[in-house]
Amino acid sequence: MPTIAKVAVNDATIHFDKLYSYLVPAELCGRLWPGGIVLVPFGRSDKPRMAVVLQLAEESDPDPRLKTLLAAAPEDARLTPDLLELVRFLKDRYFCTWYEAVKAIIPYGAQYCPGVEDGKPVVRGRLTRPLETVYTLVGELPAKPKPGPRQQAAVELLQNGPMTRRALEDQGVGRTTLDALCKKGVLRAEERLKSLDLFADIPFDPQPIELSPEQQTAFAQLSEDLDAHQPRAALLYGVTGSGKTAVFLKLIERTLAQGRRALVLVPEIGLTPQMIRRLKATFGSRLAVQHSALNNTERLLQWRMIQQGNADIVVGTRSAIFAPLKDIGLIILDEEQEHTYQSESSPRYSAHEVAKKRAAAENALLVFASATPRIETTYAARAGRMRLVTLRERYGGRPLPTVEFADMRAEMTAGNPREVSARLAGELAENLRRGEQSILLLNRRGYNTVAMCADCGQVVKCPNCSVPLVYHKNRQALMCHHCGHMVHPAPTRCPECGGKLLYSGFGTQRVEEELHQLLPTARILRMDQDSTGQKNAHETMLTKFGRQEYDILLGTQMVAKGLDFEKVTLVGVLGIDSLLFGQGFRAYESVFSLITQVVGRGGRAELPGRALIQTAVPEHPVLQLAARQDYPAFYQEEISFRRLSLYPPFCALCVVGFTGAQEGAVFTAASRFGRILADLASRHPDLPLRMLGPVPMNILMLGGRYRYKLTLKCRNDAQFRALLRAALDAYAAEKLPGKASVVIDFNSDGDL
Predict the structure, then answer these.
(1) Greater confidence, 249 or 600?
(2) Cα(290)–Cα(685) distance, rounded to whole angstroms?
(3) Among 69, 459, 488, 515, which is 20 to 30 Å from 304 by CA?
């Protein structure tokens, strides 16, 4: 009986994303399964396209018009049932296409693409499977002819087990020697899939994990949920420096002792080196990592290591939540408040929600951890929907840093033209004199942020995006931080009227220059997106700072969280006011979290810490609460605002974005979608829904495309998502996607 495969095809739009049926050829019957990657002829031209099999069924009388599958990827490349369930979850929850969900789960290096061999379409791996030659000792070295010293060295090295050619060459044993020994039957050479120990330089040095009484209480509470072998969730709330990581390590230790595995997520690539060092030193080499700073080959090798069951712990950024790890007992989201846990491209998923899905499927404990948890997470914990575990004291009884303000209004009145206040400059000089280190946070990269004409007042903007270009002094160029457009050399005259351009505003490059002028002997390390572009740059920089090769670490948000350096005693915060008055309902939450986190980088060892916040509004309540590290008081203020204004957690916020080449057409399409949705919703009076817009997004144009949005305050359940799908279908039926494409995001703070 013929077998029919229903597949989801790559490059489908959300409006035409459905399952297509194909005949399975006889040679593939019995070795094709749901989750398998296949090649299919698609469209009138039968162009080969990649697809994923979602269903298989036998039919006695199939449609004679059905086409036949062309080829299939190796069976070990298929998605396992648990990962295939995640594909369905992403498709249903985040309004992506089937294949977008597949590509989110499988890293690029493990994906397949169409190819041609002997004139026939075939499935080809995007990367050549990396192989290496491994030598094994299989015989004795003959006495005659007398073996040379290199042959003897090779045999001695291989006494302890097989070694790769690269490892033997590093010991002075060359290929000629190895080939000769293979001919004599002393060694056997074989090609194996290459393995990769990214952390070979980190020694395995397990030390007893000593917990304070408060940490021990927290561990005991979380252990109850871990030992239950049921889906459980907990919030580990602890002030900065309270030792949350030590509690993690004990939980991981207990998880591994139970024969289960652990998944640890961190929000930034810059935080992975420190976490990896702690985990590798404590638990050894059965550790894998997944994040975007790895090259494609490294990601593939790490993914295969996890897939083959050779990793007990996986650590990584947001995408690591899709690691093909089995028998998960523990999932940790460290610094769970960070926005980087939300994807900004399709599928626009939340790692929080995917983690809940995986924990439920694996009967695992899910731990959210932070000194400044998301308001939604704290609300859920206080409502009893997860366990709330609290660490109120810093480890070792160390005090929280003292926090003071530098009033930038007074600095301007006193005639200080610099971005670094006189007070901060003095504190930095004092730290330098004492041989202690400092961290400065400024969440703007570049040198100047605005180039404005002195005559006509026009700001030089990106031609593709409605944002000002930023001056980068080291490149002598104006750059767009959204699309990458560059004007080189940086102009001195206005492109509109020819008037003189005045450069103003400040970024990390300009502050670095000021610091060199103020403190000529200081060794300054700048960490931002411009300086960390090279491979392993985060780890290299942080290692050097940890070895006290630098006195001052200046950077953007990547220096605010999770870093632990015993010599850091001073933290400075610059330019916070632009975030304080930013758009989005999370603005205050973001500022409070950022200040609390970066202030907490100081005074983490024996030396006491202090912090200085530069602001023009030192009396602002959010800044005052952050200075006191008073999260409970901030939570009460913020939850009252959310309840009054109807924001999460009291509703779900869905942003429907519309983009297109013609502004008028985009607005018209967005308005029509709003009317379609309102009409459909009127038939469901029991469904809570508020609709705002359409209005332009905060940045009207990006990459040459105009952007409008509808904001929906709703309840994100199956009934509402069905309503939204019906509206999308009606929108497509009116041919409106040709005027404006649609993006749906349930994790936005109000804009895309």
Answers:
(1) 249
(2) 45
(3) 69
Residue 494 falls within a domain, yes or no?
A: no
Q: Specify the pLDDT at position 654.
A: 95
pTM of the model: 0.84
Q: Are residues 348 and 226 in the same domain?
A: yes
Nearest Cα to Cα of residue 713 among 639, 657, 653, 650: 653
| 571 lies in some domain | yes
Mean pLDDT, residues 669-678: 96
CATH number for the domain spanning 144: value is 1.10.10.10
The tens digit of pLDDT for each residue in 348-365 reads: 999 999 999 999 999 999
Residues 6+ apart with CB under 8 A from 624: none
Q: Please write the tens of the pLDDT for every residue from 17-67.
A: 888 999 999 888 888 889 989 999 998 888 999 999 999 988 888 888 899
Residues 276 and 296 in one domain: yes
Q: 226 near 220, Cβ under 8 Å? A: no
Contact 599, 628 (CB under 8 A): no
Do 421 and 569 fall into the same domain? yes
Q: How open is the CA angle 701-723-383, to the nearest 5 degrees?
A: 90
Q: Are strands 402-407 and 610-615 parallel, antiparallel or unpaired?
A: parallel
Q: Are 549 and 523 in contact (CB under 8 A)?
A: yes
| Cis, peptide link before residue 648, omega less than 30° from 0 | no
**Hey, what are 644's tokens?**
């009054």
Record the tokens describing residue 14, joined without a space: 């959300």
Helices within 414-529 (DSSP H only): 422-434, 508-518
**pLDDT for position 58:** 86
How many domains does the chain fold into?
5
Tokens of 99: 């294949």
Q: Are residues 51 and 94 in the same domain?
A: yes
Please check whether residue 460 lies inside any domain of the structure.
no
Q: What is the DSSP letter of 547?
A: T
Asked if residue 228 and residue 371 are part of one domain, the reply reads: yes
Residue 2: name the closest of 56, 53, 64, 58 by CA: 58
**Rounded CA gap, 320 and 294, in Å?**
12
Contacts of 501 (CB under 8 A, 6+ apart): 451, 452, 453, 454, 460, 491, 492, 493, 494
pLDDT tens digits, 683-740: 998 999 999 989 999 889 988 899 999 999 999 999 999 999 999 999 999 999 999 9
Q: Shortest CA distance to 651 belongs to which of 700, 593, 585, 592?
A: 585
Q: Fill in the amino acid letter for 639.
A: I
For residues 603 and 681, membership in a common domain is answered with: no
Q: Please check whether residue 267 lies inside any domain of the structure.
A: yes
Tokens of 602: 């100081």
Domain of 371, in residue numbers: 213-396
What pLDDT, on the 0 to 100 scale, is given for residue 29?
Answer: 86
The CATH code of the domain that includes 46 is: 3.40.1440.60
- Predicted confidence (pLDDT) per residue in 470-516, tens digit: 888 777 888 888 888 888 888 888 888 888 888 767 778 888 888 99
Residues 601, 737 share a domain: no
Q: Which two tokens stand for residue 748?
A: 């936005």
Same domain, 437 and 322: no
